[in-house]
From TrEMBL:
GO terms for molecular function: 3-oxoacyl-[acyl-carrier-protein] synthase activity. It comes from [Clostridium] polysaccharolyticum. Residues 242-331 form the Beta-ketoacyl-[acyl-carrier-protein] synthase III C-terminal domain. Keywords: Acyltransferase, Transferase. This is 3-oxoacyl-[acyl-carrier-protein] synthase-3. Residues 117-184 form the Beta-ketoacyl-[acyl-carrier-protein] synthase III N-terminal domain. One of its GO terms (biological process) is secondary metabolite biosynthetic process. InterPro entries: ACP_syn_III_C (IPR013747), ACP_syn_III_N (IPR013751), Thiolase-like (IPR016039).
Amino acid sequence: MNSNVQIKQIAVYHPEKILDNEYYYEHYKKQGKDVKKLFEDVYGRDKRYVINENAEKKENTLTMQIEAAKRVLKKACLQGEDIDMIVSASQIPEHVVPACAVIIHREIEGKMDSICYDFNANCISMVLALENVYRYMDNNPKVNRVLLVGGEYTTQVHNPMNEYGYGLFGDAACAIILEKTDRKCGLADCDFFINDKYYDKMIFPHCGMSKIYESTKEAILSTMEPVSCDLDEVERKLKGILRRSNLEVQDVKMFCFSQYLIRNIQTLKEDLGIKDEQCIYVGDEYGYTGVSSPFLVLDRAVEKGIVKRGDYVAFWTIGAGMQHICMLIQY
């Protein structure tokens, strides 16, 4: 399947504040923990951008998404009135009501006859939303341009006593504009799988929404435990997508993988025969940013001129639950 919908433009926003590993080494040292090997060899972390909690005007998921949206419109030489649909993808939205997409619509001065909605499938939200948007645009003649924004304030939800969450993440947002075109491009294939035996290994709010008003901050913060990432199944799904598209690994210009753990990426590269230049790693700069994670790779690849029009790009990302999505597009 090719939807003749192109990613017209992409833009990223991140906070200015940077925390390096040394900050977290000292933090956990006070708890009697040595996390250096975990952070460097498993996570692949060095630095990460984080929201400054002490700033006079504190940022959040929504403010980052709005800034990313404004940046991508400027890069595309478009106005809010040029957008037919706005999708906000996040697992930690600043508001549940109204939809954050409606607030983004207001901030970019969108037109009245447009569609706005929020999308949550945990860390796979933005990739899955992109797949949904491709299919929706292919079937709705009224929707010619879509603004898809993904991002979240991930560092706020993790317990500072838990080294499996606190320090793993960074804060960022990414926005893309999708546009109908006459050339061959868009969604080529997509596949999914769920392993729900890990459904309780990351929960936020941990106490549940019904108890949030009566709970302490510690009871609300996310729990996070190490889990298997089912990489054998990921490899099978990626091979299937390439086989159905009559492609080989070397035909894919960029593999935009979840930046969750560098160890996962190293395993997939080795097992599938992916070259270094086909799989950029940015998790040492951004940390793990949740929904926007694979798109930070795409942004960097486009910025460096590695990915050009007509190139094939593959995605894989993983979300709590556990949810997986593998997708192939033609850029």
